[in-house]
Design a protein that fits this description.
With 308 residues, this protein is of the alpha/beta class. The chain is built from 9 helices and 15 strands. Strand 13 and strand 14 form a beta hairpin.
Length: 308
């Protein structure tokens, strides 16, 4: 199968490698332009471009996906299939070029969690399972007909990083199976039921701030959904504290929400129902550390105080 691959984030790396390993022809990789980063503002390629360079693949980096010269260049390649993993919204002028259309890998069981942050919202909402879906692109984002899906159990301690990596690997296998079925003409599609749809909006700074006037289980899910990036945060004496890991307890809260207690060298925080144990955290401008390390260096900062 002659394929154009479109992606940016490292979520798509297992898929790109899997396609290459199984002897499909990658005509080109389409990714975002290099971005300036760091103090020197040096141009840094996307994770997908780094792999494409390593594999000596043709790379296209258009500023605009509707650019006529870019569209014409893709047409000249005569692709049979487009494969999209963690990329921008594609215009119809682009995704309609391949002979068999363009498929997308989405990190949820569509139509649940349409949108840019399906993994985070599945964790935030305390889901016990999620999955990956391949579907054909159409004009409205994440609404195309489903080709294949695979369910994935969410472990109670999975955070964003763990689930992200898990879904990227399972998703790569699903994409390969999808390509093979399309190549063989052995597939059926299922229209999405919009009545069952839910949305997974972009993660904003407001979503990352912890409101301690909520049940411990909800805060626990918020912390793991945002760990390690961008990380849930709170404030202590105007200092931002990022929290990367917490544990639930069975201890009933008896004080104002956000009140901190220290017990056996553990940091416990009162919520609306139970105490939440903080396991890993970071004071602004400092390194990430365990609660025990934090207490050795910052006990005076935290003792008899409240997070806000």
């Amino acid at each position: 199968m002659k394929i154009i691959f479109l992606g940016t984030a490292d979520f798509g790396i297992p898929t790109l490698k899997k396609i290459i390993e199984n002897n499909h022809e990658i005509l080109c990789v389409v990714t975002v332009p290099d971005k300036p980063q760091g103090r020197g503002l040096q141009l840094v390629p996307s994770p997908i471009k780094s792999i494409a360079l390593e594999k000596n693949l043709k790379i296209l980096q258009p500023q605009k996906l509707k650019d006529e010269s870019f569209i014409n260049e893709v047409k000249l390649l005569e692709p049979e299939l487009g494969v999209v993993v963690a990329f921008r919204i594609l215009p119809v002028e682009l995704y309609s070029i391949p002979k068999y259309g363009t498929i997308n890998l989405h990190a949820s069981l569509l139509p649940k969690y349409r949108g840019p942050a399906p993994i985070q919202w599945a964790l935030m909402n305390g889901e016990t399972e999620t999955g990956v879906t391949t579907f054909f692109l159409k004009e409205v984002v994440d609404t195309g007909n489903i080709i294949l899906q695979e369910k994935v159990l969410i472990d109670h301690e999975d955070n964003f990083e763990v689930l992200y990596n898990k879904l990227s690997i399972i998703g790569a296998d699903l994409v390969l199976r999808t390509i093979q079925r399309i190549e063989e003409g052995n597939f059926e599609t299922l229209p999405q039921d919009d009545r069952l749809a839910s949305f997974a909006p972009k993660i904003t700074k407001e979503i990352c701030r912890i409101n301690w006037e909520r049940p411990a289980f909800e805060i626990y899910n918020q912390i793991r959904a945002l760990s390690p990036i961008p990380a849930a945060f709170t404030f202590l004496d105007s200092k931002m504290i990022k929290i990367y890991k917490a544990k639930l307890t069975d201890i009933t809260s008896t004080k104002d929400c956000g009140t901190i207690e220290i017990s056996n060298n553990y940091i416990l925080v009162h919520t609306t129902d139970k105490l939440l144990s903080i396991v890993e955290l970071q004071v602004e401008s400092r390194k990430r550390m365990s609660s025990q390390e934090f207490l050795r260096g910052y006990r005076n900062l935290i003792e008899a105080k409240r997070f806000s």
